Amino acid sequence: MRNLVTMANSSSSAQAMGDEAFVSLTTFRRTGAPVSTPVWIARDGDELVVITPADSGKVKRIRNSDRVELRPCSRRGAVPDGAVTVSGRARIVTGDSVERPTAVLKKKYGIEYRIVMLVELIVARRRKPRVILAIATD
């Protein structure tokens, strides 16, 4: 994890969030209860992008409320004490529009991305439809 625990400038924090290997993405249930999940993230222009299965809980919650929060975290989702929180709004990207942000994520994560997708293909016996969550930070 980079030094996002101490960064104060929200603009630079949002930019640096895209350089993290993993972030804790918090989405919100209809009740307002937060649900956090560790995800891969990358910068794509002015937005941060995350890839996820189209049928994931994250997607369902974002359809209800586009409000999200991001914090740097470990692969298992552990957020360090004092970590910066970046707030934003997510939109769901589907169809041909997923190609560019998917390429950005593939480039950032390299062989790890390909291995995870291969394991999913073997375990699920099919490739799951995926969407991109494009996040504009506040």
What does this structure look like?
The protein contains three helices and seven strands, in the order H-E-E-E-E-H-E-E-H-E. It has 138 residues and is α+β, with helices and mostly antiparallel strands. A seven-stranded antiparallel sheet has the order 2-1-5-6-7-4-3, with helices on both faces. A hairpin with a 2-residue loop joins strand 3 and strand 4. The longest helix has 26 residues. The two termini are 22 Å apart. The N terminus is likely disordered.
Q: Key terms for this structure?
A:
138 residues, globular, disordered N terminus, Pnp Oxidase, Chain A, alpha+beta
Topology:
Elements: H1 10-17, E1 23-28, E2 34-39, E3 42-44, E4 47-53, H2 57-64, E5 67-72, E6 86-93, H3 99-124, E7 130-137
Quick overview:
The chain has 138 residues and is an alpha+beta fold. It has 3 helices and 7 strands; from the N terminus they run αββββαββαβ.
Quickly give the CATH architecture. Answer: Roll
Q: What count of helical segments does DSSP give?
A: 3
Largest sheet descriptor: 7 strands, antiparallel
Percent in strands: 25-35%
Low-confidence stretches: 1-9
Which strand order spans the largest sheet, edge to edge or round the barrel?
2-1-5-6-7-4-3
CATH topology label: Pnp Oxidase, Chain A
Name of the CATH superfamily: Electron Transport, Fmn-binding Protein, Chain A
Arithmetic mean pLDDT: 90
Class from secondary-structure proportions:
alpha+beta
Shape: globular
User: What is the count of distinct domains?
Assistant: 1
